[in-house]
């Protein structure tokens, strides 16, 4: 009897140890995938220095553009309200957009500013207005066609757009001309799908005015696509992390032909910006030798040389209290970040970036 008890205890101990070992290895594997990878970042000392910040009062602002030393901020809770700041973050002005058509269904319109023009759009309707920042009055330019989810102005008449393909629902890139909105140049090959072509090709569409090219940074994998406004592919670049395949599990919603996440996806690249020769990317993956305390207190921006096709360096944008960086933009050698209800200005070491130009 005593021998049997010892055997049972021994088996239970083995079972517990085995279970704990599996759980530990799984957690370590998850940690390796999501938090610590084999790549090594370079953090030059004092590359990014905070020089100023301003209180916006609300955390609902987003960047609409920067033109002629003016920062344009849209507001998701007040869609037709624009907040303008000077680049010293000292002067504020507020304007309200007036539309010539007010009977359209307005849910979550967005505003983009380029040069002296601004655009109000909502791709799920779809519609697009164009107006001038001198009077903030806009006229309807598009009120039909394919649905879209992102708009990026290229010049006063052309916009790059991420469209939603009518039958498949897949993301495709296009460019339209406001002088003839029926003539849209589309490319179904720029965004390479790995799963469904919808969720797995999610990302950020950007225009680089200095190089006159477009970039698309994928959200769930280590890839960005660089192409001309004509939609001619230049190359597909890789971020320094190792996530080449979208780690997404999808499931269909019962009774509907709609797919959703079966589990929270691993976000690789959260947001991006481009200026000059460089692509700036907010990475969500921790590299080797990076302290957990730094990830707890800051967001990491990786910088890539679009011309030299290489990784350059990384730097931190620090949290304010419990608020993390929501989005950012870059103008010349200055980065502006939205952190909670604050806008923060960082000066970047221009002499270091010029080494790569």
Order of helices and strands: HEEEEEEEEEEEEEEEEEEEEEEHEEEEEH
Q: For the CA atoms, what is the radius of gyration?
A: 23 Å
The average pLDDT is 87
Percent strand equals over 45%
> What overall form do the CA principal axes indicate?
globular
> Fraction of residues in helices?
10-25%
Low-confidence runs of at least 5 consecutive residues: 7-35
**Structural class, please?**
mainly beta
Total E-strand runs = 27
User: Termini separation (Å)?
Assistant: 80 Å
Largest sheet: 5 strands, mixed
Question: What this model shows, in words?
Answer:
The protein is globular. The longest helix has 33 residues, at 2-34. The strands form 7 sheets. A 5-stranded mixed beta sheet has the order 6-10-9-8-7, with no helix packed on it. A 4-stranded antiparallel beta sheet has the order 1-27-26-25, with no helix packed on it. The chain has a 4-stranded antiparallel beta sheet with strand order 2-3-4-5, with no helix packed on it. It is built from 3 helices and 27 strands. It has helices at 2-34, 292-297, 350-354, and strands at 48-55, 61-67, 70-75, 81-86, 92-96, 98-99, 110-114, 117-122, 127-132, 137-142, 148-153, 158-164, 171-177, 180-187, 203-208, 213-218, 223-227, 233-238, 250-252, 259-261, 269-275, 278-283, 298-305, 310-318, 325-331, 334-339, 342-348. 12% of the residues lie in helices and 46% in strands.
């Amino acid at each position: 009897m005593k021998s049997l008890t010892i055997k049972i205890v021994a088996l239970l101990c083995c079972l517990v140890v085995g279970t704990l070992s599996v759980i530990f290895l799984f957690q370590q594997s998850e940690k390796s995938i999501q938090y610590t990878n084999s790549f090594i970042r370079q953090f030059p000392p004092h590359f990014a220095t905070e020089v100023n910040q301003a209180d916006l009062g609300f955390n609902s602002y987003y960047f609409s553009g920067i033109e002629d030393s003016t920062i344009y901020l849209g507001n998701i809770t007040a869609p037709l309200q624009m907040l303008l700041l000077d680049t010293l973050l000292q002067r504020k002005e507020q304007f309200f957009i007036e539309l010539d058509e007010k009977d359209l269904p307005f849910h979550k319109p967005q505003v983009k500013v380029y040069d002296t023009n601004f655009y109000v759009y909502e791709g799920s309707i779809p519609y697009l207005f164009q107006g001038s920042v001198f009077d903030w009055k806009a006229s309807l330019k598009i009120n039909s066609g394919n649905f879209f989810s992102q708009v990026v102005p290229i010049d006063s008449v052309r916009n790059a757009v991420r469209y939603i393909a009518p039958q498949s629902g897949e993301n495709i890139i296009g460019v339209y001309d406001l002088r003839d909105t029926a003539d849209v140049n589309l490319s179904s090959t720029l965004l390479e799908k790995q799963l469904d072509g919808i969720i797995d090709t999610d990302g950020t569409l950007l225009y680089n005015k200095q190089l006159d090219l477009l970039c698309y940074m994928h959200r769930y994998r280590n890839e960005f696509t660089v192409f001309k406004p004509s939609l001619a592919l230049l190359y597909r670049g890789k971020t320094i992390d190792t996530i080449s395949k979208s780690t997404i599990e999808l499931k269909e919603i019962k009774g509907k032909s709609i797919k959703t996440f079966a589990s929270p996806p691993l976000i690789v690249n959260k947001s991006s910006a481009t200026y000059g020769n460089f692509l700036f990317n907010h990475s969500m993956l921790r590299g080797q030798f990076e302290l957990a305390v730094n990830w707890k207190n800051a967001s990491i921006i990786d910088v890539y040389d679009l011309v030299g096709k290489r990784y350059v360096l990384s730097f931190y944008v620090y949290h304010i209290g419990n608020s993390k960086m929501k989005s950012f933009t870059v103008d010349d050698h200055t980065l502006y970040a939205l952190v909670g209800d604050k806008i923060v200005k960082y000066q970047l070491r221009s002499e270091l970036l010029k080494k790569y130009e």
